[in-house]
Predict the structure.
Amino acid sequence: MSATFTVPFPELSLISQYFTDHLIEDEPLSPSELQIIARSVPKRRAAFSTGRKCARQALVRFIDAPPELLQGKGGEPIWPEGTVGSISHSTKLAGAVVASKSEVTAIGIDIETIGGVKQAMLPLILLDTEIEMINGKHNDAALWATLLFSLKESFYKLQYPLTGLWLDFKDISISENNGKFSFMQVKSSHDLSAISFDQIKVDWTVASDQVITLCYF
Ligand SMILES: CC(C)(COP(=O)(O)OP(=O)(O)OC[C@H]1O[C@@H](n2cnc3c(N)ncnc32)[C@H](O)[C@@H]1OP(=O)(O)O)[C@@H](O)C(=O)NCCC(=O)NCCS
């Protein structure tokens, strides 16, 4: 198995990316980072360690010696001054994206295994319009279900550092037009005014049985 994985979004110059399919506990962690996973099972320790490794590798474009990355109260990584970023790990892949705060306000990524989103979950995580979208994809329905779920997780990671809000899956709707995805707030009392919905760029890709989604503005 290779130690690094190809860059999934090669055309994005503003964003530094590092992905790997080698999920092991080999990143030197600071005492405070180690504290975060002190009581975690080995699988979680490996995922955390690999995520921190990816994040520091992605940060190198902006910072010579990337520091420890601690956790905010919502579980979000605390990125170094002047940067924004996001981390994700599945059972097979981990990755991080980082950008300069002067160019990108917020960013989220997510990795999911295609088929992990079962039919019975759909009414819990998707709106009727989104389920209709999936039903229209016939042979690709499993991919699309995973894709929409992953896009919502990416959006959640994008918005949390700006709003501090926990959002339900049905608080946000996804629409697709000619292959371009956009997010909209479903009528709710949440104040999402910090999110420039019409400026969010969305990208996604498939690598083997993994879906990787990215959103940023
Ligand atoms: C937090 C959540 C998005 C993580 O997604 P996941 O698919 O379970 O796991 P991933 O491996 O993709 O991501 C985990 C990483 O996300 C990051 N993360 C966790 N909480 C976060 C938050 N509140 N904001 C931003 N990033 C966060 C962390 O870096 C974490 O890895 P680490 O703990 O090793 O640092 C998910 O568990 C969750 O709670 N979702 C419910 C809310 C939601 O998604 N609603 C959709 C609304 S549209």
Remarks:
- Strands lie at 16-20, 83-89, 94-100, 107-113, 172-177, 180-185, 201-207, 210-216.
- Residues 14 and 103 are 7 Å apart (CA to CA).
- Residues 115-200 form one domain.
